[in-house]
Amino acid sequence: MIRNAQFVVSNTDPKKCPKPDRAEIAFIGRSNVGKSSLINMLTGVKELAKTSQKPGKTQLINHFMIDDRWYLVDLPGYGFAKVSKDTKDKWEKMISSYLTGRDNLCGVFVLIDSRLEPQKIDLEFLNWCGEEGVPFVVVFTKADKQSKTQTDKNVKAFLNKMEDIFGDIPDYFVTSAEKGSGKDEVLQFVDELISE
Ligand code: GTP
Ligand code: MG
User: Under a CB-based contact definition with an 8 Å cutoff, are residues 73 and 26 in contact?
Assistant: First the structure.
């Protein structure tokens, strides 16, 4: 359980993030996949992270302090088509330098839309994480949006692709920010990561 969650600071410059004096977990994934919603669900604070039906809502590196113990980070989404190439390049640079340069980062939760078949952009991003040694787990989102059968089918197809790329299946969670499902499992895993 999270008892206290507080916004700390927003940045475009990874160098201006808070002093890396606590364990840190970041949330990333395609625009609109449900990063900010999942963060609100996990923390139990409804409007802690700003959400929107329109993709591209989160544009900064947002730090939240959790229980005075760890930092939770909400990142902008990748693969958002409706911004200029220039903006896209800037976001990508910001995100990649954050992910590869943040010393206290102990895990990156990569969110995948459980409604979709495996998407190239997600597989490419995960492949990049693997190459760069960024420690990740996979979180499937929006499981409430379709039948369990359909969710299971999409999850399985995605995990099969992961196995093709990496030779094994990563840790993963199936969640719904709407229903609160997967909350205990994800928080239990966070606890393990930050205690290491
Ligand atoms: P960006 O900041 O734009 O990259 O998006 P994001 O990944 O932070 O997504 P956000 O949390 O803003 O959610 C996008 C839309 O999906 C919003 O309309 C949410 O209400 C909806 N949504 C997110 N998670 C869920 C979920 O688990 N179930 C349902 N039904 N809707 C969800
Ligand atoms: Mg967001």
Answer: yes
Pocket test for ligand 1, best of 27, 43, 51, 88 (most atoms within 8 A of CB): 51
Per domain, the residue ranges of the chain are 5-195
Query: Which ligand has its closest atom nearest to the C-alpha of 175?
Result: 1
Task: List the residue whose alpha carbon is closest to atom 10 of ligand 1.
Answer: 34
Query: Is ligand 1 within 6 A of the CB of residue 115?
Result: no
pTM of full prediction above 0.80: yes
CATH number among 3.30.930.10, 3.20.20.100, 3.40.50.300, 3.50.50.60, domain 5-195: 3.40.50.300
Phi, psi of 103, deg, nearest 5: -65, -35
10 phi, psi to nearest 5 deg: -115, 145
The Cα 42–Cα 45 span in angstroms is: 8
Q: What is the pLDDT of residues 120-169, one digit of tens each?
A: 999 999 999 999 999 999 999 999 999 999 999 999 999 999 999 889 99
Question: From ligand 2's centre to the CA of 167, what distance in Å?
Answer: 31
